[in-house]
Amino acid sequence: MSTLRQVLYGIALLCALALFVWGQQQRIAVAMQATALAQQDAKTAREDAARNLTNANTLQNTLNQERQAQSQLRSLHDQLRQGLTLREQQIEVLKRENTVLRDWAAQSLPDVARRLRERPALTGADVYRQWLSGRGAVPVAGDRAQQ
């Protein structure tokens, strides 16, 4: 082999080696960018997970508070129902014991009280306003002062 050929082979080998090193650097740069992007995605995912966990804990606490309030309302409802039952029983006992009370309870309601319990079938705001106005409306407080 001639010296020229050896030099050309050497230069070609150096060029191939330089091309190989450049290719590896490009692959490393792409891999580093992918790693940075993956780390950013992981960070975003962790932040989202933390935010979702906070929301879930808040919702769980709210749910527990609502369940507790509902339980308290049920308990209060049961107590009120029990008190109503006792009151009704007491009224029945009093009716049996007291003839005056029994006669009074058997009477029909006076007209004034009966009208208070009337509820006509109203089909709109105007009809309701007219119904209220037609029932002998109470005078305004300023009108009473003038009388």
Give the helices and strands, then pairings.
Blueprint: H1 3-97, H2 99-106, H3 111-117, H4 125-133, H5 141-146
Helix pairs in contact: 1-2
What features would you describe in this structure?
The chain has 147 residues and is mostly helical. It has a domain of 76 residues. The chain contains 5 helices and no strands. It starts with a helix and ends with a helix.
Brief synopsis:
The chain has 147 residues and is an all-alpha fold.
Radius of gyration: 45 Å
Quick check: average pLDDT? 87
Give helix % range.
over 70%
Tally of alpha and pi helices: 5
Low-confidence parts: none
What about the largest sheet? none
Q: Tell me the strand percentage band.
A: under 5%
- The helix/strand class is mainly alpha
Number of strands: 0
Q: Please provide the ordered H/E string of secondary-structure elements.
A: HHHHH
Globally, the shape reads rod-shaped
End-to-end C-alpha gap: 136 Å
Properties at a glance:
single chain; mainly alpha; about 0% strand; rod-shaped
